[in-house]
């Protein structure tokens, strides 16, 4: 089974997923793709000896460069691990039900384009939500609206800040994202 990962930032989820599947002969991480040449994810891939490629807007939206790369790699699953750009429709159409995303909140609440990183946790805090969590879902043509695969929750306390909420959510991501990816891969 082959996975391709997309990331835009720190890539802590990418590193976690690489470690999780390292010992698994059935699953290989073919490469990591990022739209941000400054992303820390490149350092992580260099250290972990995983191929990593930078692409710009033109490659992603104005050419078939990334689509052709993905067709040649023919992954069983494309995993968005903190990837901030919208996936082009023709990429979705070429990989139906093969693109999964993780969102650091309980969709459909706190979803949508602007809702990423600390914005989500600030809104959750401002609304005094009793709980938050992660949503792992298939990617379709609308931001954060694909079929939900799994959700995991964590309760919030009065003393929580956006930072402590982010930490609680990251812990959920590290614990569950690789396991859910494995379930989707094995269920295919
Ligand atoms: C995670 O919080 C994930 O839920 C969201 O982007 C963040 C990525 O963090 N989609 P990292 O780059 O994996 O550290």
Annotation keywords:
single chain, Formyl_transf_N, 7 helices, 7-stranded mixed β-sheet, 188 residues, Phosphoribosylglycinamide formyltransferase, phosphoribosylglycinamide formyltransferase activity, binds 5-O-phosphono-beta-D-ribofuranosylamine, alpha/beta
Principal-axis shape equals globular
**How many separate helices?**
7
Mean pLDDT, to the nearest integer, reads 96
Bound molecules: 5-O-phosphono-beta-D-ribofuranosylamine
Enzyme class: transferase
Pathway: Purine metabolism; IMP biosynthesis via de novo pathway; N(2)-formyl-N(1)-(5-phospho-D-ribosyl)glycinamide from N(1)-(5-phospho-D-ribosyl)glycinamide (10-formyl THF route): step 1/1
Active site: 103
InterPro entries: Formyl_transf_N, Formyl_transf_N_sf, GART, GART_AS
Describe this structure in words.
With 188 residues, the chain is α/β, with parallel strands linked by helices. Helix content is 40%, strand content 22%. The protein contains seven helices and seven strands; from the N terminus they run βαβαβααβαβαββα. It has helices spanning 12-22, 41-48, 57-62, 65-73, 89-94, 118-126, 162-187; strands at 2-7, 28-34, 52-54, 77-80, 99-103, 131-138, 148-155. Strands 3-2-1-4-5-6-7 form a seven-stranded mixed β-sheet, with helices on one face. Strand 4, helix 5 (89-94) and strand 5 form a beta-alpha-beta unit. The radius of gyration is 16 Å and the shape is globular. The N and C termini lie close together (10 Å). 34% of the residues are buried. The mean pLDDT is 96. The site of 5-O-phosphono-beta-D-ribofuranosylamine (GRF) has 12 residues, from helix 1 and strand 5.
């Amino acid at each position: 089974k082959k996975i391709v990962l997309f990331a835009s930032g720190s890539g802590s989820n990418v590193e976690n997923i690489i470690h999780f599947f390292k010992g698994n002969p059935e699953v290989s991480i073919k490469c990591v793709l990022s739209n941000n040449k400054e992303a820390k994810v490149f350092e992580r891939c260099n250290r972990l000896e995983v191929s990593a490629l930078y692409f710009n807007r033109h490659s992603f939206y104005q050419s078939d460069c990334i689509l052709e790369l993905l067709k040649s790699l023919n992954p069983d699953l494309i995993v968005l691990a903190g990837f901030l750009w919208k996936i082009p429709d023709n990429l979705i159409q070429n990989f139906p039900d093969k693109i999964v995303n993780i969102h650091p909140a309980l969709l459909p609440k706190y979803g949508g384009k602007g809702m990423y990183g600390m914005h989500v946790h600030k809104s959750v805090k401002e609304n005094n939500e009793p709980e938050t969590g992660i949503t792992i879902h298939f990617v379709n043509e609308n931001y954060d609206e694909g079929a939900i695969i799994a959700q995991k929750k964590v309760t919030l306390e009065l003393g929580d800040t956006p930072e402590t909420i982010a930490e609680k959510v990251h812990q959920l991501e590290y614990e569950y994202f690789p396991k859910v990816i494995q379930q989707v891969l094995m269920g295919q």
